[in-house]
Amino acid sequence: MTTARERARRALARRLARRPRYAGPSINRIIPNLLTMLGLCAGLLAIRFAFEGRFAQAAAMIVVAGVIDGLDGRIARLLKGTSPFGAEFDSLSDFLSFGVAPALVLYLWSMQWVGHLFFLPCLVYAVAIALRLARFNAALLDDPAEPRPPPPLFTLNFFTGVPAPAAAGLVLFPLFAALALEDWGFSAAAQALRYPAVVAVFLVVVGGLAVSRLPTWNAKRIKLKPEHVLPLMLAVLAYATLLVTEPWAALALGGLLYTAVIVLSVRAYRRLAREAEEAAQNPSPSG
Fold it and tell me: At residue 217, what are phi and psi to the nearest 5 degrees?
């Protein structure tokens, strides 16, 4: 004789069996794409603010897009929500937010009144970012017709060229620094950074760094010695304090620090490549 609890359990099982089963994506696959969409919207807002002459807000929106870009991939891996669609969507969002948006913001801020020729550096930078993203995506795919030998393990710690979000931060250095100088009352220095030739040089040089073969550190793979953890935490705290009190100065300083990181990355890569070559030429005897 069945009890009331058993009858209720069977009735619930029958109701659940009649419920439709959806074949769509789970919510953990949608959350990273929603973040990517927000980053794309931040890039579009940056362009809108630039057309309205609100360049501080435009720069802030590109920074927001960079923060979102740093989060969406990590959240996708954490939620096991990575997908080919998400990867392609992320690349398209990066092209607009870190390629098109910075170029248009700088053109409207500095060069729109001095002739159409100064739009050429903006094109160079945007195309360079597109090529850099295409090369990055192609490197993730293996061509069965032309299999590539596995790279040395130490190369996994480095990107090839400057990543798109970092390139956007570097190319916006004149705008960040000019906004900081304006806040401090140094209007003449701020106007000097707004000079079209200065901005054009930044666009071309940073675009060249993006498509270059320079090795740059992959921050996700950097490991620290135990004695370096506390100084790093204190440095991050100091930078966060500066970011809150003087955001434009902190962002400009971040560009200078990243330039130093590029130099250190190249030196470290060459040292590791030399050590790997020496180890291959003089293998240690086994046993």
Answer: -60, 140
